[in-house]
Amino acid sequence: MDAESVREFLRKLPHVEETVQWGENLVFWVADKSVGGKMFAVVNLDKGGHVPISFAAGPEKFSELVEIDGVIPAPYLARAHWVAVERWDIFRPREWQQHLQYARDLIEAKLPKRTRDILAMSAADRRKIVSERKKLLAAKQMSDAARPKAKK
Question: Domain of 15?
Answer without folding.
Answer: 3-111
